[in-house]
Amino acid sequence: MNNYFNIQNNKATRDGFGDGLYEIGSANKNVIGLCADLTDSLKMGKFKKEFPDRFVQVGIAEANMMGIAAGLTIGGKIPFTGTFANFSTGRVYDQIRQSIVYSGKNVKICASHAGLTLGEDGATHQILEDIGMMKMLPGMTVINPCDYNQTKAATMAIAELWGPVYLRFGRPSVPNFTPADQKFEIGKGILMNKGTDVTIFCTGHLVWKSLEAAQQLEEKGISAEVINIHTIKPLDIETVLDSVSVTKCVVTAEEHQINGGLGDSIAGLLSRKMPLPIEMVAVNDSFGESGKPEELMQKYGLSTVDIVNAVYRTLARKK
User: Fold this and answer.
1) What pLDDT, in 10s, does the model give residues 173-196?
2) Which of 46, 106, 140, 265 has the greatest number of C-beta atoms within 10 Å?
3) Annotated active-site residue in 23, 62, 225, 279
């Protein structure tokens, strides 16, 4: 599994979305792009240029965008909506719930600039509740890929899945380390590093930091299993339980509130099936603030060191 420790380059996950949308748009004429005045930020420019008759610039009218997307599905189209994660969820929750999810519309809600790594735009834009909001909706698939390659593959894969999907990605350039030719399996976690002492379940930008933590722990004689849970919902129950049945303790790591995210999903599963010590690396019931992405990750407890320390805490509680 050590091939996952190799960085190919540094690219933003939003670039993976833009390239994936262009490729799936080239292959499937039913794919429609909709954007709320953020075409460049969402990297949808290539799709817009190549397929102008399949691109709708809605303007700063996110609620209308969701309604239009729902309507397009009735004619057999596969709409991909694009705006910031905050505007993709918090601003339009009613429209998503009522117009898309309640009737099972085949809309792909694609959300960039999620989490603290949005950086200088500050707390009003750094939504940290979106995974929780989306995973509570019945029938909604929630995906949070870790790098450029995985985001590109996920974007293409969700076009083949019937039903509403929330695809979350980010603004900054981050390590790109998963295979370029990967097959993205919705709902299937990926074993990134095999271990026996503790399992680190991670998602999004925290996957790379979890791999860094595993390397540091190995130097201390601690064997950490790292599993990339790119699909928050449906959760890969089998992979989770198979891993923790060996390691007997857990750390979760995510760029999201501690309430409602991946950690809550893992903890809920373990409380029902296999109660074990668990520590969660996430934002602790707080809004963010303006700052450099990496500085914010450190301040709010989402660094590699924070994952290592969480491992120490959960190991101390292990029977």
Assistant:
1) 999 999 999 999 999 999 999 999
2) 265
3) 62
